[in-house]
Amino acid sequence: MLASANEPNIIGLDDQLIHLLRRAHQRASAVFTTAVGEQQLTPAQFFAMARLSELGPLSQNRLGRLAAMDPATIQGVIRRLGQRGIIERSSDPGDKRRTVVRLTPQGEAVLEKVLAAALNVNESLLKPLSQQEREQFITLLKRLI
Fold first, then answer.
1. How far apart are CA 90 and CA 101, in angstroms?
2. What is the pTM of this model?
3. CATH for 26
């Protein structure tokens, strides 16, 4: 039986990494969603758009790998962004089996509107940490992934 709110945390769930990472993810997503406001982008959608902006048109498969998303997730991200007119899909002229995705002019405009706010999310999330702690935290997270 798990402890009630008034009992001690016998199992130590509050110190479990998976629980802490989940809570950190929830906070990060909430801060991001607030920052990008009316554009209503998820972090995954923003990251896919940012990769396309950085690298230009990419195959759907390559974009998924570069955005660290599994095939089902990147497919959903691309579908939703496509429905909003933010990206467009086309067949690769060199390989008709491959789908190439690119930002539309509307997508570029949306990205431009949210870019500064999205990049400032790091500052908001890391605000409680000193500069040294921020650097260490980022280094350690990169080692975990």
1. 7
2. 0.81
3. 1.10.10.10
